[in-house]
Amino acid sequence: MSHVKAGGSSKNIHNNAGARLGVKRFGGQPVKKGEVLVRQTGSTKIAGPGTYISKNFTIHAAIDGVVSFKKIRKTHFSGKTVPRTQVIVK
């Protein structure tokens, strides 16, 4: 008789697909209105002029133009500033 209590088996449960996050259009590329520029979890990059952010934090182009990225300092409610990348379409 075994002296180890039942532990179960969970060998084949971690096989889900990746979320395909990341930058989809890079700096200098031309884009059309509505195109996805960045897919992200949370607001690691922020929407600048010519862009908008959707419910799941995806950044889209609001106008036709060329993509560019800019480093900025964003102020939190507590007064702390954190570096963020701003996505811009001109």
List the keywords.
90 residues; mainly beta; OB fold (Dihydrolipoamide Acetyltransferase, E2P); four-stranded antiparallel β-sheet; four-stranded mixed β-sheet; elongated
What is the residue-averaged pLDDT?
92
Per CATH, the class reads Mainly Beta
Elements, N to C (H/E): EEEEEEEE
CATH arch. level architecture = Beta Barrel
The largest pleated sheet is described as: 4 strands, antiparallel
Tertiary shape: elongated
- By CATH, the superfamily comes out as RNA polymerase II/Efflux pump adaptor protein, barrel-sandwich hybrid domain
Strand order of the largest sheet: 1-3-6-5
Low-confidence stretches are none
Which strand-content bin applies to the residues?
Answer: 35-45%
Secondary structure: number of strands:
8
Derived structural class: mainly beta
The structural domain count equals 1
* Helix run count: 0
Helix content: under 10%
Which fold does the CATH topology refer to? OB fold (Dihydrolipoamide Acetyltransferase, E2P)
* Rg on CA atoms, Å: 21 Å
End-to-end gap: 73 Å
